[in-house]
Amino acid sequence: MTKQVNMHEAKTQLSKLVEAACRGEEVIIAKAGKPMVKLTAVNENKPAVRRLGLFKGSSWMADDFTEPLSGEELALWEDGPIEPPS
Questions:
Q1: Are 3 and 28 in contact (CB under 8 A)?
Q2: CA distance 60 to 21
Q3: Confidence (pTM)
Q4: What is the spatial distance between Cα 74 and Cα 72, in angstroms, rounded to a whole number?
Q5: How high is the pLDDT of residue 32?
Q6: Cα 59 from chain centroid?
Q7: pLDDT per residue over 40-82, tens digit each?
Q8: Contact in structure between 22 and 42 (CB atoms under 8 Å)
Q9: For residue 39, which of 18, 15, 11 has the smallest C-alpha distance?
């Protein structure tokens, strides 16, 4: 549930608004009816949400990835230019 309060009310009821934010409620503080800031709880013990599979299918690895480099590839790797020619 979103709760919007004006600046004056936020000043007088800050403790209640902080408690509401800690309970997970969205608290918006407005100035002259215009939303200015969102009050949110800080929970340092809460682990970051990990979205598994976010990049699934967006990368690939060649079948010969684990094979040794050929002599030519190794020479390019060790002595070649840092950037490809343009």
A1: yes
A2: 43
A3: 0.49
A4: 5
A5: 92
A6: 21
A7: 888 767 677 888 888 888 888 899 899 998 999 888 888 877 7
A8: no
A9: 18
Pairing of strands 34-39, 26-31: antiparallel
79 part of a folded domain:
no
On whether the CB atoms of residues 21 and 28 are closer than 8 A, the answer is no
Report if residue 26 sits inside a domain.
Answer: yes
The span from the CA of 81 to the CA of 20, in Å, is 59
Residue whose structure tokens are 């209640």: 16
| Structure tokens, 31 | 């100035």
Domain that holds residue 8: 2-39
d(CA 12, CA 1): 21
- The residue type of 21 is A
